Amino acid sequence: MDAKDARRAAHPVFCTIVPPHLLDKLAQADNPAVAAPAKRTLIADASLRTERRLNTVIGLPAFGGAAEEPNRTIHDAQRRTSLPGKVVRREGDEPGQDATVNRAYAGLGATFELFLSAFGRNSIDGEGLPLLATVHYDENYGNAFWNGEQMVFGDGDGEIFLDFTLPVDVIGHELAHGVTQYTANLDYFGQSGALNESMSDVFGSLIKQYALGQTADRADWLIGAGLFAPDVQGVALRSMKAPGTAYDDDVLGKDPQPATMDDYVRTGRDNGGVHINSGIPNHAFYLVATALGGNAWERAGKIWYETLAGGELDSQAQFKDFARLSVAKAVSLFGEGEESQALLKAWSQVGVPTA
């Protein structure tokens, strides 16, 4: 069994865009319109995580021989939980009346295009894997997730979260979990899990920037901007530019993400804080991308992608392992120059050693 086959046999994980600690906070809210959907979402997510663990023996789906074009299918769960649901749009179909379906279709396409155009990757598995998504999942479901095989989007509760197809970076984030699954297959716990989450934030942000034609200095570096309902005191789920500042709300609480290792959070919750400590490598990427300038996917993004997909990153990699390999990858891609210097400086600023 070669490295690619070994990774195909690896165990996919259940990854959500909204972290459990945030849903826990919402479930304790005094307002039943906020607490009830959060509790329902937590229960659904717990069940799905259990189902994913039970089904990992199946392994990852394989697909090969496809042309370098997207192959998208959007399903409608019709507010039920049976997946994938009713097919409502296939590749090449004209847009319909359901804006959520159209956004999901466009978001899958934007993700496919970024990986192919910027990194030469044909879909998330590199071999043209069809892209599947389900919208209108469950009642007031406040999350979006990658279950190892497909994307799923909730409609939100209208009180805290709006439709999860609204931010294209949320779509890109979840599909990028599939790219990680098919490459380094980073363990979803502790620092390797935080790297897993960070990879999805990095590529989710790059997909948004690519779709909008934004250079690094014009990007907002927010993950999930536009997802919160109008009364929520916050701009997004996470900020790569300034981790810990994305929201500060009476109901949600304050964004707990650290920007440096000085504030690294040690916890047994959320798989060892994978959604929290991802702020550290997120911030490192922001520092590199803005230091290099221009289109972030061309140099910073290429270094991150090649480090993830290059075959040298262990599934249990720690921050320092990724940092060290990223510097080496910068040198191999661009030589001894401003790219590797930007990497060294950024990792030093967030307190992660590269030696």
What's the short story on this structure?
This protein has 355 residues and is of the alpha+beta class. It has helices at residues 3-8, 20-27, 32-55, 99-119, 168-182, 190-212, 270-273, 279-292, 300-309, 319-334, 338-349, and strands at residues 15-16, 72-76, 86-90, 131-135, 144-146, 151-153, 222-223, 238-239, 248-249, 253-254.
Describe this structure in words.
- The longest helix is centred in the first third of the chain and has 24 residues, at 32-55.
- The protein contains 11 helices and 10 strands.
- The chain is an alpha+beta fold and 355 residues long.
- It has a 6-stranded mixed sheet with strand order 1-5-6-4-2-3, covered by helices on one side. A two-stranded antiparallel sheet has the order 7-8.
- A hairpin with a 3-residue loop joins strand 9 and strand 10.
- The two termini are 32 Å apart.
- Helix 5 (168-182) crosses helix 6 (190-212), helix 8 (279-292) runs antiparallel to helix 11 and helix 10 (319-334) runs antiparallel to helix 11.
List the helices and strands and how they pair.
Blueprint: H1 3-8, E1 15-16, H2 20-27, H3 32-55, E2 72-76, E3 86-90, H4 99-119, E4 131-135, E5 144-146, E6 151-153, H5 168-182, H6 190-212, E7 222-223, E8 238-239, E9 248-249, E10 253-254, H7 270-273, H8 279-292, H9 300-309, H10 319-334, H11 338-349
Parallel strand pairs: 2-4, 4-6
Antiparallel strand pairs: 1-5, 2-3, 5-6, 7-8, 9-10
